[in-house]
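ugh ok so i messed up the first submission bc i forgot one of the chains. this is the corrected input, ALL of the components this time, i swear. 314 residues overall. if the numbers dont match what u have on ur side tell me asap before i send this to the collaborators (the ones from the other lab, u know who)
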Amino acid sequence: MSPILTGMTVLLCLAMIVAALAAIRVKSLPMAILAGGLVSLILSVVFLILAAPDVAMTEAAIGSGLTTFLFFFVLSRMRGGEDD
Amino acid sequence: MIKRALALLLVLALGGLFASLMSAYAPDPELNPTARYYAEHTAQDLGAANLVTAIIVTYRGLDTLGEVTVLFLTAAIVGLVLAQSRRRIPHQPVPGGELLATGTRLLTPLILLLGVYVFVNGHLTPGGGFQGGAILASGVLLVLLADPVKPFSHGLISVIESLAGTLYVLIGLAGLALAGGFLDNRILPLGEFGQLFSAGAIPVIYSLIGLKVGAEFASMLASLSETEDL
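and heres the new structure output, hopefully the right one now
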């Protein structure tokens, strides 16, 4: 792996950690859901760099697509419980 | 305070574990014998351009059948549990909003098309039945988000799901009778390497898996959306 790719991977992993921290620290639930989806999205880019496009696709479709949608769906079903 | 210290200790221990794993890791200089066999024989034996798909659908086809079965059982159990609390009289849910409704009308056909593209081209490009099926289901979920009272045909979905599953097993049995073994893809002509209609039964099997996975996810999401608020 070239130094540029290695540096990019390290940066992406750091961004992933920041997004993961944001997901548990942020006050508003929609922002937390988006941050959680962001972790999966960055992870799928990392998989792509690591030459695993099939895994990257699964991660993008299920991790950042379907679960983020699903969380929003559940959020729209619960009313008045946003402070929990 | 004790709880926090314990959590911190746990995180540090996990970090140490991963760091030791990471420092001991060295990539293999060459492929191991099994991987070398797959890499050298896939193109001429099975005619699939995507090695991963050839392994998933043909060499390890039985495992994939097992995975699909696990997913089917999950969908069945979710349906069974949630059917108890299905709402009798649909109440008026919060409307999704004009932006979401219009966007959904535009995007859903495109998302479904992308899902079908992903699993039909599973033997040529990265992706395949599971990814395509998940994309199909996310299109369905978008519709459910935009219009929660839209009637969802569980009958149609279960027909698609059972047809795809039955055909999958029948193709596997046809491989047993006509070619080298269960789920052998050489029951259909291999065709020209790299073309859409090539690699024997792989595109057919992966399309069936895609439809099955999409139908299972969609039925799970629909049962979830039809559940009575608790």
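quick check: Chain B has one domain: 33-225. that seems consistent at least. The first helix of chain B runs from residue 2 to 23.
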